Amino acid sequence: MTVPDRLLPGRPYPLGATFDGLGVNFAVFSAHAHSVELCLFDPSGRHETRRLSLPECTDEVWHGYLPEARPGLVYGYRAHGPYEPQHGDRFNPHKLLLDPYARRLLGEIHWTDALYGFRSAGARADLSFDRRDSAPAMPKAVVVDESFDWGEDRPPAIPWADTVIYEAHLRGLTMRHPAVPAPERGTFAGLAHPAVIAHLKRLGVTAVELLPVQAFAQDRFLVRQGLRNYWGYQPLAYFAPEPRYLAGGGSDEIRIAVRRLHAAGIEVILDVVYNHTCEGDETGPTLSWRGLDNRSYYRLRPDDPRRYVNDTGTGNTINATHPRVLQMVMDSLRHWVERYHVDGFRFDLGTVLGREAGGGFDPGAGFFDAVRQDPVLNRVKLISEPWDIGPGGWQVGNHPPGWAEWNDGFRDGVRRFWRGDAGRRPDIASRLAGSAAQFDRRCRRPWASINFVAAHDGFTLHDLVTYVEKHNEANGEGNRDGHGDNHGGNWGVEGETADSAVNAVRGRLKRAMLATLFLSAGTPMLLAGDEMDRTQGGNNNAYCQDNETSWVDWERAATPAARQLTAFAARCAALRRRLPPLRPTRFQHGATLAPGIPEIAWFDLEGRPMMPEAWGEPEVRTLALWRAAPAPEPAPSPADSEAPGRGWAAGAAPFGRAAPRREDRREDRREGGREGRRAGALVATLLLLNADGVPRRFLLPDPPLNWDLVLDSADPEAVERPLGVRAVAVAPRSAVLLAAKVDPAWVVSFSP
């Protein structure tokens, strides 16, 4: 291609580099630059071959058109303007800048002082000016053609009430998987491998939530220690995939993976980081946004614009109140939905996006309004991590309708109850019922609470019952990083042990917590590997451990104990799918579904309703939870009708999973919509919890039903069976689930 001496004017929209079949249009926002140059490179990205000024600026968007340019063209920008950090401007044309809309990256950051806009060794620090060219140390953007044949791909569109999330690290999930070919391990190709998808299907997973897959930076301080930014929470390019996650180098690998997962009925949710960038505070490098328009892209301290607002704990905070910055976030989100067909997003430190000009959190912030009205984004799943380190940073339950939120109260409550802490019955009752105190407002539903016992940051489930203290020495921070109180216990030995008694207690507790997770109202989220005894050796902050510390150990997963735990988790998920009371679509407040049949009720060991004074007994660690719901319509199946046992209790129809009829969905949307169905069959469940260290005998409450024992966490391989008695012995630190089909006509005739 012969490059002309100057660019044609081009267009200010769309932003980024856009190939139209005849050439490429370049458009980049900067409100305060005096001029912007387009820098072209050879295919290797090592040699700058041409600089061309963007000839036009329309509405603060600099743009130009390069005829005959094709996909594969390597480029970057240089921005000219004032370098006055004390006023918030940090322009330095000696620094090559990544296009904020780059769709693909070539190369990676090679750390050198030339990447900084100032002389880092100088006495004036960031007030000084560095004239070294940073291009040799910078990754570059690549023009792409994003056409792809999606065929018959359709989003699974799993209802929130039926959703089971599996939080996974794309690389860590398959790096040690023996069935995945070595070149594909740790990539999207590995995620889409049939063996991986089969495992997810066996578990009953309906959505995979991937830790950041947008391109991210490797922190300089980690590289110096021989470590890696494993988690990926240092965004470098919001539109480009992380190059290491592509086995063949092309982004179509992502599309193929998504299409295969969709074909299996599994959604893809991306963990995204729009609260900060990898450029850090005023002492950080100039890689993209800082050099293009520092004052617009970042929130600066009003009293000292040289410094950054740091509500994120990473050194800077994205200025989502600026219309062009908000546009970048929205364009990026739509890009991943429209170009990659992802089904939802989990927003890291989501409260940051809800902070308006005054700095406080506002559920009516511009970002939330923009998402709500967007015809693309208001159709996908939206999950917030509802906290940051800024003022009023804990906002669990305060997001607007349509959003789900990570519920750390569920995490801590479940851990403390099963550890045997005193006085935890009121809290665990709230968590089992969907944390209504936080989420039952503005017509929100129980699914808004994302329930989890473990997540990527913190102990794994296995480590939670194996360690009291964190063991983060390998992170190189003197074990000072990570949370100090994880609400866990080691049950007599710190770390792994051959003591069978200790391991038996640990096994019971893992199963009890998994049962609590799946049998609670809300949306369950399982940390990848927790179903098969994954350990990080007590490291509760493995953000920099891109090694066997963090990778799922599939060899360990094949051990008898791990296989038993996997089967138990799958069984819990199957029960949740089968029994409507375990996944209520509305918050339950004790309404009567039929005479003597409440939708929810709490009982003590004697089968008596819980009285106010009983909730205050600090040393009682038992609880019985009754829930009832209309039975689903039968899903006719010859195989189901021939299943052994007691029909539905053995996994057969009529409690198979069936899509609701259109008229039922309309009815569910109306207030009191269940009234017309109360005369039909109901399903009742009774969950018995014993967090004591000794067995407890539960008397069953009235009315007497034909209960089946469908789950016992102390006996994970026991088959479902008719109970036939009015009392149940629950083993120490265990949960038991009973289920029954209820005929309201029979209940009316019952007389105690």
From TrEMBL:
Comp. bias regions, Low complexity: 638-658
Region (Disordered): 630-676
Domain Glycosyl hydrolase family 13 catalytic: 142-569
Basic and acidic residues composition bias: residue spans: 660-676
Keyword Hydrolase set for record: yes
Gene3D superfamilies: Glycosidases (3.20.20.80), Immunoglobulins (2.60.40.10)
Record GO terms (molecular function): amylo-alpha-1,6-glucosidase activity
Keyword vocabulary terms for this entry: Glycosidase, Hydrolase
Record InterPro entries: GH (IPR017853), GH13_cat_dom (IPR006047), GlgX_Isoamylase_N_E_set (IPR044505), Glyco_hydro_13_N (IPR004193), Glycogen_debranch_GlgX (IPR011837), Ig-like_fold (IPR013783), Ig_E-set (IPR014756)
CDD domains (UniProt xref): AmyAc_Glg_debranch, E_set_GDE_Isoamylase_N
Pfam families named among the record's database cross-references: CBM_48
Coiled coil: none
GO biological process: glycogen catabolic process
Family per record: Belongs to the glycosyl hydrolase 13 family.
Protein name stated in the entry: Glycogen debranching protein GlgX
